[in-house]
Structures are given as structure tokens and as C-alpha cells.
Automatic annotation (TrEMBL):
Spans annotated as Disordered: 67-93
Name this polypeptide is given: Large ribosomal RNA subunit accumulation protein YceD
Lineage: superkingdom: Bacteria
Length: 93
């Protein structure tokens, strides 16, 4: 399996807050700004790594690879469809 190139476009706004400082409710409700609790010796590289990992898709694919459901999102006929037809034919009317 080979690696793939994946372009990221991350726009994150972080608001540093001192450890133990109360964060106003209106700031907690703002989806555009994330408040982070900062202590002495903030590891900026670890923070950047976490933001990058959160921005990556769960299962990236090559552009040439099809999804398991096909292009239109509809899967193949279910293997249980045959069982459903058997169940319907054995009913006593």
C-alpha cells in the first residue's frame, strides 16, 4: 500500500484561557472560536499536530478508488434479499 498526498485547509481560531479561568457562556456557544486551557509551557507543536489529525478524513482514498457503495451511493443487492423472498413464500395464507 502506498501513501497518498492529501491537501488540508484548516481555519481554526483558538482562544487561550488561563487554567481555572471561567469562560463566559457566550464564548462557549460561539462555534467559530475554540477556547483552550493554557498552562505554563504550552506545547504548540502538539497542539498543531492535534488540529491536523482532527482535520484529516477518517478513511482517505485515492481519487481513482471507488467507494464500496459505488458512485451513486446505492449498494449492490443485499445478500439477505434472497432470504426475504424465501420467508415470504413459506407463509401459510
Amino acid at each position: 500500500m502506498n501513501g497518498i498526498d492529501w491537501q488540508l485547509a484548516i481555519a481554526t481560531v483558538l482562544q487561550p484561557v488561563r487554567a481555572g479561568q471561567q469562560i463566559p457562556d457566550e464564548e462557549l456557544e460561539d462555534d467559530e472560536v475554540d477556547a483552550i486551557e493554557v498552562e505554563e509551557g504550552l506545547d504548540v507543536m502538539a497542539l498543531l499536530e492535534e488540529e491536523i489529525l482532527l482535520a484529516l478524513p477518517l478513511a482517505p482514498r485515492h481519487e481513482k478508488c471507488d467507494s464500496p457503495l459505488g458512485r451513486n451511493g446505492a449498494g449492490e443487492e443485499s445478500p439477505f434479499a434472497a432470504l426475504a423472498s424465501l420467508r415470504g413464500s413459506n407463509r401459510a395464507d
